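Form 7-S
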Amino acid sequence: MNAYAYKASLIVLVVWLLYQIVHNYVFFLFFVLAIGFLALYKSSPKETQKHTNYLWTSLALFLASFIFTTAFWVLLTLFLLFQLSSDEKLLNTIRDPLFRKKQYWRDKEYISVQWNENNANDSKLYRNKWIGDDFVGKDIFEWEDYNFQKIMGDTFFDLGNTVLPIKENILLLRKGFGDTKLFVPKDVALSLDVSIVLGKLIIEDEVFDMKNETVKWQSKNYDTALRKIKVVSSTLIGEVEVVYL
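Output:
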């Protein structure tokens, strides 16, 4: 299917989805309530707990308004088929844990380690992307523990452009769909706790094809190392890859 036919099909299916929502009393009620809570989310102060509660309530109601419609599942199936047919890497990520037998590895890049020191310990607020890619370490940066979550997108962490403090550093990653790539200097000890519903974990020449499984792995010198990082990752569909610099 070419891009024009794909876009035209999406438009038709979205119209069909709205038609099914409007012509079902329960679905339409959920849809109207979702819009109402979304309006409350937009108008409420960001510092309050209600601000977040309004958002999650709105998302739950939106989901309830269309998840039981035929149009939604046809739309989702078409979207996945098109993405799989046009994105070979995504296709391999889903296919390999189910069917692949042979091991393989890809070329890696090298980025040097540099130091940036700052002893400030201020409170900070970070806003995560819902959808999109994140690249931490493209330039020299000061390390701090990270907690990332998103629905869809790739995440890249390059620890070669920072120096980890002498302690156990923490990196938490939660996402629905997308790949995660970690560039780790060889003098940094690593501990992994990776859960993937469908995808792969790659550590140097080791490849774990995962189907709703969890892999716990750590460097031999992790307990005694001065500089170390613990990575806890949860992914629905995607690939987690560790590259040693």
